[in-house]
Amino acid sequence: MHTPTYHSTIVLEQEALNPGDEAAPGTPGSGENVCGHCRARGIMEDGRACPMCGGTGIVTAGIGGG
Ligand SMILES: [Zn+2]
Description:
66 residues; mainly beta; binds zinc ion
């Protein structure tokens, strides 16, 4: 039996992945990168938190192959 798992719940944890993250924090071969969606500001033009980086302005990007 397979139970669908949805990550729709907003989890206010620093280690939580953001939609813009390409790799989990601490993943070997990954690194932090500025969020291009909000230009590292963390907020959008309308003042709302950037949905891609979760308002941090930083996304975890995969580096190298993968
Ligand atoms: Zn952003």
